[in-house]
Specification:
The chain contains 12 helices and 11 strands. By secondary structure, it is an alpha/beta fold.
Length: about 375
């Protein structure tokens, strides 16, 4: 049997007919840039996040960058973000001209928390750099502790930008939707996300009128009206066709999320806890989006090889902390032991809505066989 890490072909086959009809509708309307599909999707996303504004942009990375710019982050400012993450948040910080200040993560949740963020702020200040913002990442679909981070941001004061690329549909410990607690939040609709387009796409959501207005201006070359450019912006608009794709797929999001939750629950019930550290779940009213199911093992590399030899897709998330990436080699050397330990031991297992019971049984059995050898 072959079990991929994700099965986009099966996922897209389910909706292909509806999506193609929606794309035909865009072609008939012939309004290909910031048309009715983008406007409708923005309204849907704002409502889903319980905020007044959503602004479609070209990618999740752009969403973080434009959020930081809209909040006034300047070149040379420090911005705290976890070292255990995909590069997008740190890359966006650098593209603004700011300096990523990497923090460690909590050993159980794998997310930044108040203690790790405070340590990073203190370290940055000792180096003579002002910290201007925090960009927590809701890693693998589990919300970071946004209530306490929001309180910290208010205390400092700092801007708070949530990276929700992996957590659409998740809820925090207060039962609030991921993305509604900060000054802004960034979403990605890359095809492998829980809500994925047929290409790149992203969005900024925000409760703030001023931030929404500035992101809308920045995404169209800094223009407040046709040919009236108030500032230097960029070309970063959610494509009308991608918005049409996403609108179709919103109808299936709740069902897909429920399927991910069932798969995660079975993994947590049947995988050998004596051999693996399993990801923590979320206690109600919190809700985990289960974008990825990441286990940890001292024998991670051998387990990954065993699974690949038996036709099972498994991937290391992430092999190297951002503070050790070559692109950030000019930054101060810092030890972040929890993130480094997770990079050494973590492995993502297959999880996707169309995963069959038979496929999951095979994965669980193969992992059991590995540890019984």
């Amino acid at each position: 049997m072959r079990v991929p890490l994700q099965d986009l072909a099966a996922q897209e086959a389910r909706v292909a007919g509806e999506v193609l009809r929606a794309i035909e509708g865009v072609a008939r309307e012939a309004n290909f840039v910031l048309g009715s599909q983008v406007a409708t999707f923005e309204r849907w996303l704002a409502a889903a996040c319980d905020v007044p504004h959503a602004v479609g942009v070209a990618s999740g990375t752009d969403a973080i960058e434009l959020s930081l710019r809209a909040l006034g982050v300047q070149p040379g400012d420090g911005v705290v973000t976890p070292a255990l993450s995909f590069v997008a948040a740190a890359e966006a910080i650098a593209r603004v001209g700011a300096v990523p200040v990497f923090c460690d993560v909590d050993a159980e949740t794998l997310n930044a928390d108040v203690s790790t963020v405070r340590e990073a702020i203190s370290r940055s200040r000792k180096a003579g750099r002002r910290v201007r913002a925090i960009v927590p990442v809701h890693l693998f679909g589990l919300c970071a502790p946004v209530a306490s981070l929001r309180a910290l941001a208010f205390e400092e004061p700092l801007a708070l930008v949530e990276d929700v690329a992996q957590a659409l549909g998740a809820r925090d410990a207060e039962g609030r939707p991921a993305g509604c607690s900060g000054d802004a939040a960034a979403f990605s609709f890359f095809p492998t996300k829980n809500l994925g387009a047929w290409g790149d796409g992203g969005a900024v959501v925000t409760p703030r009128d001023d931030v929404a207005a500035r992101v809308r201006r920045l995404r169209v070359h800094g223009a407040s009206a046709p040919h009236m450019h108030d500032e230097i912006g960029c070309n970063s608009r959610l494509d009308e066709i991608q918005a049409a794709v996403l609108l179709v797929k919103t109808r299936y999001l709740e069902t897909c999320q429920a399927a991910r939750a069932r798969i995660a629950a079975r993994y947590r019930a049947e995988l050998p806890r004596s051999s693996l550290a399993l990801p923590c779940s979320a206690d109600p009213p919190a809700l985990h989006a289960w974008h990825a199911f990441v286990v940890r093992s001292e024998r991670r590399d051998a387990l990954a090889q065993w699974l690949r030899e038996h036709g099972i897709g498994a991937r290391v998330y992430y092999p190297k902390g951002l503070h050790h990436q070559a692109c950030f080699a000019t930054l101060d050397v810092v030890a972040l032991p929890v993130a480094e330990e997770i990079c050494r031991t973590a492995l993502a297992l297959p999880i996707y809505p169309s995963m069959t019971d038979e496929a999951q049984t095979y994965v669980i059995e193969q992992i059991g066989d590995f540890f019984r050898r």
